[in-house]
Amino acid sequence: MKELHSFGWYASRITPNLSKDVFKPVPARLWGGFAYLLIVVTGFLAIGLFDLHMVLNIVIAGVLGASFAGMGFLGHEILHGTVVKKSWLRNFLGAVAFWPLSTGPRLWRKWHNMNHHVHTQHDEKDPDAWPNLEKFVQNSFLRAIYRLPFGVRAFFSFLSLSIQFTIHGTMMFIEYIKDFNPKNRPAVLLQTVLPWATWIGLLFWIGPIKWLFAFLIPLLIANFIVMSYISTNHRLNPLTSVNDPLANSLTVTVPKWVNVLHFNFSYHTEHHLFPSMSPKYYPIVKQHIKKMWPERYHEMKMSKAMKALWNTPRIYFKDNELIDPHKQYTFGTLGNGLASGKPSHSDGLKKTV
């Protein structure tokens, strides 16, 4: 692995080449969120008030799921302070945007802004980092999962993307609620409970069948879309002791229209260099990174990144490699030999696991 540098090291070298305007909030981004909100409300009313054909309900559920995800991407942007600066307005708009995913703004800032961004891909401090071999040995559930045949494990791993964000968000609430000042805990709890109260209320209003199409299926779709990005953001990269975004983050490439719908969320290395900059300007940052450090920068088509995820395990070995403990195969990470997700070599680790 090349010498690692902090995100501040890179940012300080790119910033002189950028206009001051790129660091200003872009409130116009809210128009996209308003459009998504109108679609969601319209979808709820259509399913709730009319007895539509199942095919139409499925179509609406798909649109709602895509809208839930789009709102989540905007909520992520809002809570980084790149849309509006006023604290109360940022929290309010962030709460609305994350409402479908039932994630409160205070919890998100603690979990994502303060912990994930500051300690990205640190094996102990990043709440989103996947476990190393030592943690795997201590986890009976993971050991059982990795005894499954590879194809079965990969299939269920991808299927689980449809619930991972919701489950991980719940785990983060349990993990971090104790870290909040006691006087702030009721607000954190309320921000977590209120969205779920809304969705349970919707269940009683429209009934279980319609609720399936209005909320549950859309939630699964939104989880899958969001986690497809989150999984490719870092899970092919090595663990790093220094928070080096060019080593521990991946930018995926998607069609331009997808970037419009997803608020440029695909530019993830750029985001970790400048989290307080509107993603509107990340294409400019990307140009500078590729000009200054082309050999360090990682980008990959989303389809290729998802294929590499399918073909590799999620257990780290020596930080720079991924390992299938029972097959005793190791795989390179990005920057350390990962090409198509094929095993690089075999180590005699049977006694270890």
Secondary-structure map:
Blueprint: H1 7-14, H2 30-49, H3 54-78, H4 87-98, H5 105-116, H6 133-138, H7 140-145, H8 150-159, H9 161-176, H10 185-206, H11 208-234, H12 245-248, E1 251-253, H13 256-261, H14 268-273, H15 282-292, E2 299-301, H16 302-311, E3 316-317, E4 321-324, E5 329-332, E6 345-346
Parallel strand pairs: 1-2
Antiparallel strand pairs: 3-4, 4-5, 5-6
Helix pairs in contact: 2-3, 2-11, 3-4, 3-11, 9-11, 10-11, 11-16
Detailed description of the structure:
Keywords: Membrane, Transmembrane, Transmembrane helix. The chain crosses the membrane at residues 30-50, 56-76, 88-108, 150-174, 186-206, 212-230. Residues 59-301 form the Fatty acid desaturase domain. This protein is mostly helical and 353 residues long. It has one domain (7-310). It has 16 helices and six strands. The strands form two sheets. It has a four-stranded antiparallel β-sheet, with no helix packed on it. Helix 11 crosses helix 16 (302-311). The longest helix has 27 residues, at 208-234. The chain starts with 6 loop residues before the first helix and ends in a 7-residue tail after the last strand.
How many β strands by DSSP?
6
Indicate the percent of residues in helices.
55-70%
Structural class: mainly alpha
- Number of domain modules: 1
Number of helices: 16
Overall pLDDT confidence: 94
* String of helices and strands: HHHHHHHHHHHHEHHHEHEEEE
Tell me about the largest β-sheet: 4 strands, antiparallel
Overall shape: it is globular
Q: Going across the major beta sheet, what is the strand order?
A: 3-4-5-6
Transmembrane segments: 30-50, 56-76, 88-108, 150-174, 186-206, 212-230
Pfam families: FA_desaturase
Protein name: Acyl-CoA desaturase
Keywords: Membrane, Transmembrane, Transmembrane helix
